[in-house]
Amino acid sequence: MKIVVITGSTRGIGYGLAQAFLERDCKVVVSSRTQSSVEHAVETLGAKFGRERVIGQMCEVTDYQQVKALWDAAKSHYGRVDLWVNNAAIGSPQESMWALPPEILYAVVNTNLIGVMYCCKVAIEGMMSQDGGGHIYNMEGLGSQGELNKGSSPYGASKYGLAYLTKVLNAELGDSPVKVSDINPGLVVTDLLMESVASVQNKDIFNILADKVETVTPWLVERMLANNKRGARYAWLTRSKIVTRLLTSRFRKRDLFSDSEIQQA
Fold first, then answer.
1. CATH assignment, 3-188+212-237
2. What angle do CA 67, 118, 84 make, to 5 degrees?
3. Cβ pair 264, 192 in contact under 8 A
4. Which one of 45, 58, 90, 196 counts the least CB within 10 Å of its CB?
5. Which residues of the chain have pLDDT under 50?
6. What is d(CA 24, CA 22) in angstroms, rounded to the nearest whole number?
């Protein structure tokens, strides 16, 4: 039974990951920036999967002491952490970089990159001190592999930096029992995606390529649980899948935005 910590996991993709891990007999620590969100998630998941299998801890990932408190809560309650998933992230309005207020630029990079660095530092130090090490998974996003998307410079740059971070951490960790890998959910219908498409008149491309949380998260969780290799990368929306969906879109109509519960990533 794996012990899993997931940042930003009271809604959206993070919550979907928590549920999928619990469905596969893991124990989970959920976290969020607000205590009320943490309590609600723990109550809901605990009622479904057993209160002994899920705990929560408020955590703002840009606050190093709160990140350390998240590790300490998991270690104190369950005795160890096998998987740590860096999911917490924020986006920005679809605007040219120079049109955005400086506080938004700072917030995106601080959360999506500095916050992940804090989490990796805490998790690596903790996993180094426990038998068997552990595995850290960083959540990729648009820009991780160098994709260009006008109007998303802060987010894309932060995710591009995240991909580098995963590679260099593995080089530094060498043959240690602590490993770092990447997961990429593709386009998932969450608040984060809706912020990106709110000003887009034609949402057809998103209806072709996007998916719901409950479709993507079980696929990612199964691969994380089965993986034992450092530097692995699991991407739901592959190039071949994109091509197939584009070619068949005339015959496969989807509307993910009208009947979906939109959740925050």
1. 3.40.50.720
2. 70
3. yes
4. 58
5. 199-201, 259-265
6. 5
Predicted TM-score (pTM) of the model is 0.89
Give tens-digit pLDDT for 186-215: 877 766 555 555 544 456 777 776 788 999
Active centre residues (catalytic) = 155
Q: Which two tokens stand for residue 214?
A: 């409950």
Determine the pLDDT at residue 264. 32
By three-state DSSP, how is residue 54 classified? strand
Predicted local distance difference test score (pLDDT) of residue 130: 97
Instruction: Determine the Cα angle at 186 with ends 185 and 187, to 5°.
Output: 115
Q: Which residue, 134, 145, 235, 240, is CA-closest to 184?
A: 235
Distance (Å, whole) CA 77 – CA 104 = 36
- Give first-to-last CA distance, the chain, whole Å: 26
C-alpha pair distances (Å), 136 with each of 37, 117, 119, 200, 207: 24, 11, 9, 35, 31
Closest of 166, 77, 92, 177 to residue 132, by C-alpha: 177
